């Protein structure tokens, strides 16, 4: 079987592809982690973000949503200075902003997961691409969710970032059809 080509650049990428990418998750903490990491990736490679993932987990208390929502400006500045995270202050501030928005969504929808998964009627979209070049950078769904998230105050959630996020949490399966990790091959 031919696998997706994109993760073959590093063992870290390959492990992420094999164990996490496009696998449905309904866990708010994990979903928030992926939202944060995808936002951190803006303008950078996913490999850079994955290499810093452990530092992000340490800096943000394993992406505890309430903890992140309560971070002060001083806390964020300390994270910027003391952890090997991406040093872009607006991206770091978005962790707090987005955590606060997630808490509001949890009150309204009972979970961040329920809020997101309702866009696909709680069933992942399973694509059947023949090769990596067919995978889009965004979709009508990512545009729709991006608009909704922005309206609710989220930052770093443009349609392209949102599409990658949907892949990360398994709402979209974009493994190429011949990849052994495609939903229909597992």
Walk me through this protein's architecture.
- It is a single chain.
- With 186 residues, the protein is mainly alpha-helical.
- It has a single domain (6-185), classed as Hypothetical protein, domain 2 (Endonuclease III, domain 1), CATH 1.10.340.
- It has ten helices and two strands; from the N terminus they run ααααααααβααβ.
- The chain has helices at 11-19, 28-41, 46-51, 53-59, 65-69, 73-82, 89-109, 112-117, 140-151, 159-168, and strands at 125-126, 172-173.
- A two-stranded parallel ribbon has the order 1-2.
- The longest helix is centred in the middle third of the chain and has 21 residues, at 89-109.
Structure summary:
The chain is an all-alpha fold and 186 residues long. 54% of the residues lie in helices and 2% in strands. It has ten helices and two strands.
Strand content: under 5%
Gyration radius, rounded: 16 Å
Q: Averaged pLDDT, please?
A: 97
CATH homology superfamily: Hypothetical protein, domain 2
Question: Which H/E pattern describes the elements?
Answer: HHHHHHHHEHHE
Strand order of the largest sheet: 1-2
Give the total of beta strands: 2
**Any idea of the CATH class?**
Mainly Alpha
Number of domains: 1
Describe the main β-sheet briefly. Answer: 2 strands, parallel
Task: Just name the CATH architecture.
Answer: Orthogonal Bundle
Question: What portion of residues is helical?
Answer: 40-55%
CATH topology: Endonuclease III, domain 1
């Amino acid at each position: 079987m031919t696998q997706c080509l994109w993760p073959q650049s590093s063992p870290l990428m390959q492990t992420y592809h094999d164990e996490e990418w496009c696998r449905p998750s309904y866990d708010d903490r994990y979903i928030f982690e992926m939202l944060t990491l995808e936002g951190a990736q803006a303008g950078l490679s996913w490999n850079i973000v994955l290499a810093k993932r452990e530092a992000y987990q340490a800096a943000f208390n394993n992406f505890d949503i309430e903890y992140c929502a309560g971070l002060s400006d001083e806390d964020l500045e300390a994270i910027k200075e003391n952890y090997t995270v991406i040093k872009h202050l607006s991206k770091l501030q978005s962790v707090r902003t987005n955590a606060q928005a997630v808490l509001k969504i949890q009150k309204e929808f009972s979970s961040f997961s329920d809020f997101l998964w309702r866009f696909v009627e709680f069933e992942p979209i399973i694509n059947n691409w023949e090769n990596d070049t067919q995978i889009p950078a965004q979709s009508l769904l990512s545009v729709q969710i991006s608009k909704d998230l922005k309206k609710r105050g989220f930052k770093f959630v443009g349609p392209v970032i949102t599409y990658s996020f949907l892949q990360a949490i398994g709402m979209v399966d974009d493994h190429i059809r011949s990849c052994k990790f495609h939903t229909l091959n597992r």
